């Protein structure tokens, strides 16, 4: 391949992923203004992030991790919040030229284009390193990149989480990491350090994922030459390079990590999820999720199963996107059969992350109470397959005995105390979350499946390359066409429903009054929509949607006035004259001029009017607004 053609590949690949991204996220590009992708609560929070970065970086330069106009008058700390600085900083550039929601939609769209491109760079390198011709490697890498870029995980999270949609840093880091281990050139060391920092500034989970991946990769590589716990490890060239990579990444990420450590104690409160909830089911890897276009043609039992998976995730459908496809995994098996350099390592890592995504206890068919047949069958297969045991005299006898026990348990259910016996199978994550820092404070195990899709993409890229090489016997063009055709499989299997693009609310004239009022003036509100409304009126608000709530702010929102106006918890019961005076004084001292409620409730209306002295000044199907004296 000529140098000119090799350079021309990059804009062509970017164009290809721009078109594919437009297809998979349609109608996003047709509704950039006045609409927002997904429309869920987290989306409005992310839109606010872009507006806030414009204020913090350009309009009134200040610490972007502290928002003084949220949780007024205390302010909101966002060190442990999903701010996704690497993505939201684009608000400082884009917001002056377009509405903030259009900027958000464009940044979200760019995540797909960039993820496809960086995944293609990684997989092209792996294929060329394996000896495939540059042209074939470039085409086959498209198939693997599509697996990762348009996975159900990626497309599902695009409906709610900008930070989790920003996956482009992961393959870029792995490209630099592997090239550093292979070649030892300084530019790859610098690249992996910067890519690690970029990944950290997109999402903290992803930074830990690549750190764990790197550690496991190096351990597996070391085992090829000797045990890890030995003196020889210190002399191992590969381990030494890995140590330099860890040091470079640590130095680069230190500015991002230090604020987290400084604000780690007292530990922020995980208000959205715990350490063990949000896990996937074994069947969910092979059955379409509720946002998949294929669910509509599935049997009713499959639809019911997928709906139940979402129900177990607090109705957050974006977390249920773990479907790996049907033909796509078969392509990976084909690649392993034909041969993949370090194929066992990629397979082991992919399966390992899939196992972690299943949480603390094995769930099959949305049940974690399983028949003993399941562990018996797994044990039988493990003993029968284990290579080191195949030549032993006892191997066949023990395998047959275990198979008979499994058959008996299947035909005649095992019992205990006269009742059918059900067992729970603990999974590695139950230990992992206590050994790896931070996961015990809110691990979200289901998200580990992202790395499974990356490993799957690598294997599919090799499948496309092998098929292309086989077909090239009929001509080089035929080989390239066959390799390119493989990309159709994941693009079809991972097809989702049209991306929801709800229109943003039309703000009534009362918001002009709020916007034009001179400072000091603040707004009490009850929902993240009120946080988004700040992008219009620019006044301090009482609400803040945070991934983790700092302890000092937890004390603020537990005051009765916050519980009553945000959550209805404080409207019932008598109010003493002292309480009434204290709440009214709080409103006056902190210049709260309005209360904007996004759902009307008679008890709260009476509380605002009678106890707080509020005057109803506007009410429609969108908001109820009161003015305080």
TrEMBL record:
In terms of superkingdom, the source organism counts as Bacteria
Its keywords, alphabetically, are:
Membrane, Transmembrane, Transmembrane helix
Keyword Transmembrane helix assigned = yes
**Name of this protein:** Glycosyltransferase RgtA/B/C/D-like domain-containing protein
Instruction: Give TM segment ranges.
Output: 78-97, 104-126, 132-150, 162-181, 193-220, 241-262, 320-337, 346-363, 369-386, 398-415, 446-467, 473-492
């Amino acid at each position: 391949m000529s140098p000119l053609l090799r350079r021309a590949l990059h804009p062509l690949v970017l164009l290809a992923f721009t078109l594919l991204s437009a297809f998979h996220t349609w109608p996003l590009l047709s509704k950039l203004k006045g609409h927002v992708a997904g429309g869920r609560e987290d989306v409005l929070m992310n839109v606010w992030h872009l507006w806030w970065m414009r204020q913090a970086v350009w309009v009134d330069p200040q610490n972007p991790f502290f928002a003084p106009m949220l949780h007024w008058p205390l302010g909101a700390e966002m060190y442990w919040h999903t701010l996704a600085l690497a993505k939201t900083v684009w608000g400082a550039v884009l917001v002056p030229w377009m509405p903030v929601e259009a900027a958000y939609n464009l940044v979200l769209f760019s995540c797909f284009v960039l993820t496809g491109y960086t995944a293609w760079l990684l997989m092209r390198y792996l294929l060329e390193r394996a000896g495939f011709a540059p042209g074939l490697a470039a085409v086959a890498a498209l198939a693997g990149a599509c697996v990762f870029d348009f996975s159900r995980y990626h497309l599902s999270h695009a409906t709610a989480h900008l930070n989790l949609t920003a996956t482009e840093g992961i393959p870029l880091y792995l490209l630099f990491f592997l090239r550093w281990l292979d070649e030892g050139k300084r530019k790859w060391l610098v690249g992996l350090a910067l890519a690690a920092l970029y990944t950290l500034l997109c999402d903290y989970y992803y930074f830990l994922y690549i750190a764990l991946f790197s550690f496991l990769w190096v351990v597996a590589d070391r085992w090829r030459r000797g045990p890890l716990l030995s003196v020889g490890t210190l002399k191992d060239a590969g381990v030494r390079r890995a140590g330099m990579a860890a040091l470079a990444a640590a130095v680069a990420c230190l500015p991002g990590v230090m604020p987290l450590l400084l604000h780690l104690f007292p530990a922020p409160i995980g208000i959205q999820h715990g350490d063990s909830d949000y896990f996937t089911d074994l069947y969910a890897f092979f059955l379409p999720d509720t946002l998949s276009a294929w669910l509509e043609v599935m049997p009713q039992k499959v639809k019911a199963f997928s709906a139940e998976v979402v129900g177990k995730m607090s109705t957050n459908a974006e977390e249920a996107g773990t479907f790996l496809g049907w033909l796509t995994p078969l392509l990976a098996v084909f690649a392993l059969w034909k041969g993949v350099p370090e194929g066992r390592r990629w397979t082991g890592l992919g399966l390992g992350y899939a196992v972690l995504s299943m949480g603390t206890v094995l769930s099959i068919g949305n049940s974690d109470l399983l028949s003993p047949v399941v562990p018996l069958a797994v044990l039988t297969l493990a003993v029968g397959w284990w290579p080191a045991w195949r030549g032993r005299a006892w191997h066949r006898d023990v395998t047959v005995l275990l198979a008979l026990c499994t058959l008996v348990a299947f035909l005649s259910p095992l019992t205990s105390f006269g009742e059918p016996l059900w067992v729970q199978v603990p999974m590695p994550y139950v230990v992992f979350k206590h050994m790896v820092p931070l996961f015990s404070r809110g691990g979200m195990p289901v998200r580990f499946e992202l790395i499974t899709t990356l490993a799957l993409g690598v294997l599919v890229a090799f499948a496309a390359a092998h098929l292309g090489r086989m077909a090239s016997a009929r001509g080089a063009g035929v080989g390239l066409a066959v390799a390119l055709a493989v990309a159709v499989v994941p693009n079809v299997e991972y097809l989702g429903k049209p991306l929801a693009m709800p229109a943003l609310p039309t703000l009534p004239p009362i918001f002009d009054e709020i916007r034009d009022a001179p400072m000091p003036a603040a707004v009490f509100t009850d929902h993240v929509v009120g946080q988004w409304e700040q992008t219009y009126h620019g006044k301090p608000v009482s609400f803040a949607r945070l991934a983790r709530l700092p302890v000092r702010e937890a004390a603020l929102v537990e005051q009765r006035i916050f519980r009553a106006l945000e959550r209805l918890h404080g409207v019932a019961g008598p109010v003493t004259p002292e309480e009434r005076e204290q709440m009214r004084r709080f409103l006056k001292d902190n210049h709260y001029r309005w209360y904007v409620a996004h759902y009307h409730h008679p008890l709260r209306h009476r509380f605002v009017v009678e106890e707080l002295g509020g005057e109803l000044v506007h009410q429609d199907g969108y908001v109820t607004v009161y003015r305080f004296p």
